[in-house]
UniProtKB/TrEMBL annotation:
<dbReference type="InterPro" id="IPR027275">
    <property type="entry name" value="PRC-brl_dom"/>
</dbReference>
<dbReference type="Pfam" id="PF05239">
    <property type="entry name" value="PRC"/>
</dbReference>
<dbReference type="InterPro" id="IPR011033">
    <property type="entry name" value="PRC_barrel-like_sf"/>
</dbReference>
<feature type="domain" description="PRC-barrel">
    <location>
        <begin position="3"/>
        <end position="69"/>
    </location>
</feature>
<protein>
    <submittedName>
        <fullName>Photosystem reaction center subunit H</fullName>
    </submittedName>
</protein>
<feature type="domain" description="PRC-barrel">
    <location>
        <begin position="93"/>
        <end position="137"/>
    </location>
</feature>
């Protein structure tokens, strides 16, 4: 299991040609913990961000991502369909609170399983000094709602 930070910036290669066609920029997932895909920075003259469905990923390795071909990139799905960590619907840095209003910390990253396509947990920061002395905390994944910089976790495990 890895955090998204381990994957961010990895080069994306076509399986058919072996050519580098982009880099991983963000992750796209639902509030129920299903990883739908990635946001990729495309290479080329008109490089732009495109959506890469998880189903198009042939292999997610430590140093690269292999996809079938560059035709796997798609326009973004409806923004209502998910969240990212850093983009337009980004929730990194959001305050995480329990359903009862208890403050948990700030969402820093997500742990995910690329093979199963699910978020396994959240990396929570309790502040710079706490992170230095105690380290960041891991919280089990749970359904959430995100609104105006606050992520409310529906259930605690």
């Amino acid at each position: 299991m890895r955090t998204f930070s381990d994957v961010k910036g990895l080069p994306i290669y076509e399986q058919t040609t072996g050519k580098a066609v982009g880099t991983i920029a963000d992750i796209w997932f639902t509030s129920h913990g299903t990883v739908k895909g990635f946001v990729a920075e495309r290479r080329g003259l008109f490089g732009r961000r495109r959506y890469l469905p998880l189903s198009a990923v042939q292999s997610l390795q430590n140093d690269r991502v292999i996809i079938r071909d560059a035709g796997s990139f798609q326009p973004f799905p409806s923004l209502d369909g998910g969240h990212s960590l850093f983009g337009e619907r980004g929730i990194a840095g959001s305050l995480v609170v329990a359903a009862d209003g208890t403050t948990i910390g700030l969402l820093d990253d997500v742990y995910f399983d690329g093979q199963l396509g699910k978020i396994d947990g959240y990396e929570i920061s309790e502040g710079f000094f706490s992170d230095l002395t105690e380290g960041k905390k891991r919280m089990e994944a749970a359904p959430f709602t995100a609104k105006e910089g606050v992520v409310t976790v529906e259930t605690m495990r």
